[in-house]
Amino acid sequence: MDIIRLGADRFGELKLLFRDIFMNPPWNDDWSDDIQLTEYLLDLTASRNSLAFGLLDGDRLVGLSLGSIMHWCTGTEYYIYEFCIDRSRQHEGLGTFFLHGIEDAVRDMGVDHIFLQTENNVPAYDFYRKNGFTELEGHVSLVRKL
Question: Which CATH architecture has domain 2-130?
Answer without folding.
Answer: 3-Layer(aba) Sandwich (3.40)
